[in-house]
Design brief:
The protein is an alpha+beta fold. It has 26 helices and 17 strands. Among the domains are: 33-223, no CATH class; 509-630, no CATH class. Strand 12 (302-304) and strand 13 (307-313) form a beta hairpin. The protein is elongated and about 95 Å long. The N and C termini lie far apart (68 Å).
């Protein structure tokens, strides 16, 4: 119950955000829902005058379709043939009194009857607003289809029946395909209608954005709740519920986290006679906890193949997540502007400073919640991982991860679309693509991201199979595009650097490191740079060092002989310009002990030596060009 309690407390701490629309990066709106409300994608918007008459209607654009609507327990979980109308906005078959007349389906008359009876009770309650009364007065006339047809929102065939699906035969009567048939995928009975009230003399806020309307229905619906019981979440007696919210990840999500409506299956049968014997959750707590979860997922959740990765704080929701790379969390710290190597200690200190803004928001109850959600079936969702920990501890663990699983990367762009170098840890999804390729199934990606989480928050070692897979792909550049290999290489170096954290490796070349694999990696880098300089900028083919990299990692001594022989023509082409690199090859090779100059396969350390040596040589080349230009 702890995750429910923390979500409930998050809702209580953010009451000022209730009903306020925010926009995601794709411009879709979302909000922290009031209790007894949900969201629905509407297709038709109907305007009613204050005196309860039809004014106008329009087909809603898909980008503006999300609508905040009042909801009851039954309507929020209705399915199949269950008649459970939403209190105000609903499908055409519910809200149109003349739908049966124009569709010929008399079986749907009970939907309108149930809807208008419920709306009557709200409109005649002491909590009713003028807007509710206006909408009820209009809909009780039962002429909605007639008005929508007259306004050319809906269309009738030659038999005076609603056209459910459009085909070209109707173009002779009405011309091009009307907009409504592009937004409604099923029959017209499934077209969702939202209502608002229009006044020519004054501004009236849209009904689905009006806090007064939210409050009106909440108070009206609370009077109908009964059946008090002890809520297991907050320990108080409140009206309970056995129906809990869906649409957790998106408006079309049918999966529920809590469900007890299966009296014939195995939800609780065999253990309890009734579901409430297992656990009781109050209606208010369930509503607030689920609404807080929906809000947080829209606001800051990371979704991979329907699996949700979420990090939030009870008092202050904004927190750096577990799936982002260092550039995403602290770009001002991670971006490398100068041609100087970082040291891990310097970067760790700077990254910790970047998190000070979050530390300054610490309160007496500064908790962090880490949650992973996924659904195995259409209707059931599970909490795969949940952890509640101290905020200071979480930030320290995050800083430790981003300061130890580090390397220099070149695969991100800034706000201006320019490629930037950044130093730090890669994103977990990028690790998955580096390990299994860019076309890997998303199920594999979400599985890897889940496995990486304990490495960040608990300090556990990175699973060996992940590091091995990234290492092998980085050692096989011939099977990848150049940009893909460079990204894979830097990510491989970050993981290997973390794996050998105690060794103290870094991007800067370590001239004193005489580890066999590190020296072999340096040799490969020197050969690569030498041949690349001889080929010039015009020639883009891979060097022999790159072509033989996979074989070199498995049989270094034998493959090095082949690579060194292939270097001779390029050394001759460069002449005296090759002297420095040729001497460097001799110097590095002489430091490998005779017994170590063997075909024993190389470990991931050779990639660190390769990257650091290549980086050092390119730095020297760039600095030399700068001197020449001055």
């Amino acid at each position: 119950m702890s995750w429910l309690l923390n979500l409930y407390e998050t809702y209580e701490s953010n009451l000022d955000a209730v009903g306020k629309m925010e926009k995601k990066h794709n411009e879709q709106e979302y909000t922290l829902l009031p209790i007894s409300h949900t969201t629905q994608n509407a297709h038709i918007e109907v305007r009613v005058t204050e005196d309860g008459q039809y004014h106008s209607a329009k087909v809603i654009d898909k980008n503006d379709a999300s609508t905040l609507i009042p909801s009851t327990e039954k309507s929020a979980s209705r399915s199949g043939t269950l008649v459970a109308p939403y209190p105000l906005h609903d499908k055409l078959s519910y809200v149109a009194g003349d739908f049966s007349k124009y569709s010929g389906n008399t079986n749907l008359e009970n939907q309108y009857n149930a809807y208008i009876d419920n709306l009557f009770q709200w409109a005649h309650s002491p909590y009713a607003t003028t807007k509710v009364k206006s909408i009820y007065k209009y809909l009780s006339q039962g002429c909605l289809i007639q008005d929508l047809v007259r306004d050319k929102i809906l269309f009738l065939d030659s038999n005076n029946r609603l056209i459910d699906k459009w085909d070209k035969s109707y173009e002779e009567m009405y011309g091009p395909k009307p907009p409504i048939y592009s937004v409604v995928t099923g029959g017209m009975e499934s077209a969702f209608v939202r209502f608002t009230v229009y006044s020519p003399d004054k501004f009236l806020q849209d009904v689905w954005k009006d806090p007064e309307m939210y409050d009106s229905f909440i108070r009206f619906y609370n009077d109908q709740l009964s059946d008090e019981d002890l809520c297991y979440v907050i320990g108080e007696r409140r009206p309970s519920t056995e129906r809990h919210a869906n649409k957790i990840r998106n408006a079309a999500d049918k999966a529920k986290l809590i469900s007890s409506n299966d009296t014939s299956g195995f939800t609780f049968r065999g253990r309890f006679r009734e579901s409430r014997e297992a656990a009781v959750i109050s209606y208010e707590v369930s509503q607030k906890a689920h609404n807080a979860l929906k809000w947080l997922i829209n606001r800051q959740g990371k979704i991979i193949d329907d699996r949700v990765f979420l990090v939030w704080g009870n008092d202050e929701p904004d927190l750096p997540g577990i799936t982002e790379d260092s550039f995403e969390i602290a770009p001002e710290t991670s971006v490398v502007h100068e041609r100087i190597p970082f040291t891990n200690k310097e970067y760790a200190r700077e990254f910790a400073k970047a998190l000070d803004g979050y530390r300054s928001q610490l309160s007496t109850k500064a908790d962090v919640n880490i949650m992973i959600l996924d659904s195995a079936t259409t209707g059931r969702m599970a909490v795969l991982y949940y952890r509640n920990m101290n905020k200071e501890l979480y930030l320290n663990k995050l800083a430790e991860w981003h300061s130890s699983c580090t390397w220099l990367h070149r695969y991100r762009k800034d706000e201006d679309g320019k490629w930037v170098q950044f130093y730090g840890a890669p994103a977990t999804a990028d690790i998955a693509y580096a390990a299994y390729g860019p076309r890997v199934d998303k199920k594999v990606v979400k599985g890897l991201v889940s496995r990486m989480l304990p490495c960040m928050v608990d300090g556990q070692p990175i699973p060996r199979d992940i590091v091995t897979s990234v290492f092998h792909r980085a050692s096989n550049p011939s099977g990848m595009e150049s940009w893909d290999w460079e990204k894979t290489l830097s990510i491989a170096c970050a993981l290997i650097n973390k794996q050998y954290e105690k060794e103290g490796f870094g991007v800067a070349l370590d001239d004193r490191n005489n580890h066999r694999d590190y020296l072999f990696g340096r040799l490969l880098a020197i050969a690569d740079v030498l041949e690349r300089r001889a080929l010039g900028k015009e020639e883009t083919r891979a060097t022999n060092a790159i072509r033989y990299m996979n074989a070199f990692s498995r049989h270094p001594a034998r493959t090095w002989k082949t690579i060194q022989e292939s270097l001779q023509p390029y050394q001759a082409r460069l002449g005296t310009k090759a002297n420095y690199l040729s001497k460097l090859i001799d110097d590095v090779a002489s430091r490998i002990r005779l017994e170590d100059f063997s075909n024993k396969p190389l470990s991931g350390i050779y990639l660190l030596g390769y990257y650091s040596q290549r980086h050092e040589l390119y730095q020297k080349k760039t600095n030399a060009e700068d001197v020449e230009n001055e």
